[in-house]
Design brief:
two-stranded antiparallel sheet, 3 domains, mainly alpha, 6 helices
């Protein structure tokens, strides 16, 4: 019962906000050169907000059955080289639809973490530090007398005297 009372209380406050916006839109209707668009926008805002208040949220996707989780873990144990995409594809061939992201989440929860990368990409800081000697770079295009497009890539560098 209290949930219903709070819903009513919220809807009263929300209705007042909606009425205030409605008055703003009506004022804009008389001051604007596009009144039909304002009315359509006002109607959409009001219906969206009332739908948020009164209609319940959908349940979402159903959870993965335990048998499918066991099957995913067995597939990973038997085929260590298989990743999330391969397991997802094999399950799809069996008629079970599970996304790669879900398979990876199930594997991660059950202790199958992916190995560390052999090569980690460089960070922005290291890239900028290695190119500190350059002052500026620019890429532009110009047209010559014959109408041909020329591409110009210019680099201004600072040479340190050592």
């Amino acid at each position: 019962m209290s949930n219903f009372k709070t819903k009513i209380r919220w809807s009263i406050h929300y209705s007042l906000k909606i009425l205030l916006e409605l008055f703003k839109d009506l004022w804009g209707y008389y001051a604007s050169s596009y009144p039909l668009m304002l009315i359509i926008g006002c109607y959409r805002r009001i219906t969206r907000r009332l739908r948020i208040i009164w209609l319940p949220k959908p349940r979402g996707r159903p959870s993965i059955h335990e048998n499918v989780v066991d099957l995913i873990l067995d597939m990973k144990r038997c085929n260590i080289q298989w990743g999330g995409q391969r397991i997802s594809d094999e399950l799809k061939l069996m008629g079970i639809r599970v996304s790669k992201k879900t398979v990876l989440k199930i594997l991660r929860v059950n202790g199958f973490v992916p190995p560390k990368l052999r090569f980690s990409p460089p960070t922005w800081r290291s890239i900028l530090d290695s190119h500190k000697r350059y002052w500026a770079m620019d890429f532009t295009t110009v047209y010559d007398r014959n109408g041909l497009q020329l591409f110009i890539f210019s680099i201004l560098s600072c040479l340190h005297a050592s």
